[in-house]
Specification:
The protein is α+β, with helices and mostly antiparallel strands. Helices cover 37% and strands 28% of the residues. It contains 6 helices and 7 strands. Strands 1-2-3-4-5-7-6 form a 7-stranded mixed β-sheet, sandwiched between helices. The longest helix has 14 residues. The radius of gyration is 15 Å and the shape is globular.
């Protein structure tokens, strides 16, 4: 049975890193990227642990093995990953422009092990994330590379709405929000 929980051990963080490595664009074919999606950012163990110490990540496990994850990234990390700085700037500009009072957490990356895709794990991770975060945050925000159509469609299917579209680092992004 698949279980959803917050990260609590270094072993779980190491398993997240291993799953992330398997799904970076340089480690999968272009065909697989288009059909299955990919992750953009590569985290070090130390940085993943630093994020975890501020707020644990959401994981899906099967037989004590991490089979999926959704990373929780607080605003305090907005300058730590250069590729994500434009996203945080877009969030701030968009929210200020819309004059919305949004207390948000960024879903820093989501990934499901290939053997567990199309089994509801993606939806399960976001359902657990919403339940866990809703007492403190009223929104989850993330961005998706528009080339990653599988991920965009999956996010829209669980209720994400488009906040903004923009170009950064030679990539086109959709900034999306899920209200908790």
């Amino acid at each position: 049975m698949i279980q959803y929980q917050l990260t609590s051990t270094k072993e779980e963080l190491a398993q997240i890193i291993a799953l992330q490595q398997k799904n970076l664009p340089q480690n999968i074919s272009l065909d697989e990227q288009q059909a299955q999606g990919f992750v953009t950012v590569q985290h070090s163990f130390d940085f993943l642990e630093k994020m975890h110490n501020s707020h644990p990540h959401i994981i899906a496990t099967y037989n004590n093995k991490v089979i999926g994850y959704a990373l929780c990234m607080l605003q305090e990390f907005k300058s730590d990953i250069p590729i994500l700085v434009p996203m945080f700037n877009q969030i701030e500009n968009t929210i200020c422009h819309q004059k919305k009072n949004i207390n948000y957490v960024v879903m820093g990356q989501i990934c499901i092990d290939k053997n567990y895709r199309k089994k509801g794990v993606f939806r399960g991770l976001y359902t657990f994330m919403k339940q866990t975060l809703s007492k403190k945050y009223n929104a989850i925000i993330t961005e998706v590379d528009v080339k990653n159509t599988r991920s965009l469609n999956a996010h829209k299917a669980v209720g994400f709405e488009i906040l903004n579209r923009y170009k950064s680092n030679h990539q086109n992004w959709e900034l999306i929000i899920l209200y908790t």
